[in-house]
Amino acid sequence: MKNLKTNYEIGNIPHPEHPTPQFQRDTWTCLNGTWKLKKLSQNTVVFDGEILVPFSPETLNSGIANGFTLYKDESLKYLRTFNVGSEFDGKKAVLHFGAVDSECKVILNGNLVGKHVGGFTPFSFDVTDYLTCGDNYIEVIITDEATRNGGARGKQSDKRGGIWYTAQSGIWQTVWLEFMPKISIDNLKITPITKENKVNLTFDCDEVVTVTVLDEEKQILKTSGKNFVSLEYDFIKWSPDNPKLYDLILQNDSGDVVKSYFGFRSFEIVKDNNDKLRLGLNGKPYFYNGVLDQGYWSDGMLTYPSDKAVIDELTMLKEMGFNTIRKHIKIEPMRWYYHCDRLGLVVWQDFVNGGGEYKFSHVALFPFLGFHHKDDDYKYFAREDENSRNQFIQLVHETINALYNTVSVGVYVPFNEGWGQFDSKKITDLVTKLDNTRIIDSVSGWHDQGKDETLIKSFHTYYTPLKVPKDTRAVVLSEFGGYSMKVNGHVFDESKEFGYKKFKTQDKLILALEKLYLYKLLPLIEKGLSGAIYTQVSDVEEEINGLVTYDRKVQKVPTEKMREINDKLKEVWSRIN
Q: For an engineered disulfide with 382, which of 306, 342, 355, 540 has Cβ 3.0 to 4.6 Å away?
């Protein structure tokens, strides 16, 4: 078994771009690059070297990966110094982490500045009182106990294999330091209201804030307010066919300047001409034709190698004719969503699963046979631990807080295939309370809790014939396909191959895809199917059912051929709507 390098250069300071394009100040410093790393076991140092942040030590791009594993009761200690110039004296300073897996405490110049639990969500600490002009010393001490004790773990597993992947640890998204005036603009929330042709902005600031709206660098609006402004204009609606974005500049009297952007769009459930419920976009029925994306990379695991790598991949999917990506059991860096916003790809965002060990019978076999279980049975779904459930609820809050302004996120998926599922009606109500601007696919796949819970009937089909279940709700095929083809020299394990249907040659794979889409899927659109998500973008370790290989060096399905197939789906949809 081996991981493979991609063709992408990472440089001495990986991911040097500003990590949050929707909330950007010019006064910031990227802290990615070379850090010292120690691995401790029972307070004994068992590794002492250097690591390239933001890549986890288990990855090739970290400069370490040689069987590196963080075991139970072990910890990581990251250390580095950085310099702060005198021009920042008197400014407020905030230290940001994109994501750290999974439990950490941060020490700056000998002072504990904060702790965080949860390996997939961003967090920040105000470090103004601990920072000095000149050299500063930072330590980040990390354990992975939260992941192993029921916290959010995603597809990571200590027992890797099949659809479960190698576990990783540590810092895996950008670290950066941001400076601002003592009176600053914070907590920006952007809410388009398409029916009223306006966009509402809320923010925290003790001063009046001036808001300027730009359309391709031309000012079209300027207004001001304290903690709230409403922007009214004949905005062009955002869609995958026309991913129109408007730039925002927010400025207060103290000189804080924040750059942002928004797209004018709405996601909802609507009725079609035949009175069937459909997923909608901007008030009209819309067919979401997408692909499942695990977001794993052969040399960086959860961390993609560079901005160019993700732009290339998203552009390929767009050119293939897809309009949707289901981001599966992972939260990406904010720049990933920015590229979806500007390229025009709707995101179905999974929340990250947790809980205890899943039983195959409960999350696969029984649902396959048609048995759905009530999810207030915590033991059945490996959610007996109250702390684990509370961590998930905290994850819901943090996920929505991070993604609320993202233009492309159109669907939230709280639970997938019963993995750590619990109280889905209550969780769905919570998600709706925190953000009522998205569609909610409450329990993707199975263990459906009934019509009172969600307006979506979401199902997965790999081994049985495709069909639209009889249901009064909007129906989506949220996983299907999973066709695999092994490409020698571009696989993680030459001896193992996981896929739902295997093909030996590219020609046979393409013929099978044509049959799947044009003869099995296409007729379902007229019968009420509102969306379809093919598994998947890329191979991941021994799961080799991707459109491209794990190292992203071989595209198994040509762009033109996939585009031809998707164009025919688009033609049918246009004819009936």
A: 355
Assign 83 a pLDDT band (cuts: 50, 70, 90): very high
Q: Quickly tell me which residue has 């106990």 as its tokens.
A: 145
Domain that holds residue 237: 186-262
Please provide the distance, in angstroms rounded to a whole number, between the alpha carbons at the two ends of the chain.
49
Within a domain: 297:
yes
pLDDT tens-digit readout, 499-509: 999 999 999 99
pTM for this structure?
A: 0.97
* C-alpha to C-alpha distance for 30 and 173, rounded to whole angstroms: 11
- Residue 132 shares a structural domain with residue 43: yes
Q: Are residues 115 and 231 in the same domain?
A: no
Domain endpoint, select from 212, 238, 262: 262
Tokens of 406: 């993202």
pLDDT, tens digit, for every residue of 510-534? 999 999 999 999 999 999 999 999 9
Residue with tokens 């991070």: 402
Q: Tokens 């399905």 identify what position?
A: 557
Cis peptide before 523 (omega within 30 of 0): no
What are the backbone angles phi and psi of residue 520, rounded to the nearest 5°? -110, -40
Angular region, 521: left φ>0, alpha ψ -120 to 50, beta rest? alpha
- List b or e across 17-53, with b for residues whose CB sees 16 or more CB atoms inside 10 angstroms: ebbbbbbebeebebbbbebebbbbeeeeeebeeebbb
Residue 4 has pLDDT above 80, yes or no: yes
Q: How many helices, marked H, and strands, marked E, lie in the chain?
A: 10, 36
Indicate if the pLDDT at residue 453 is higher than 80.
Answer: no
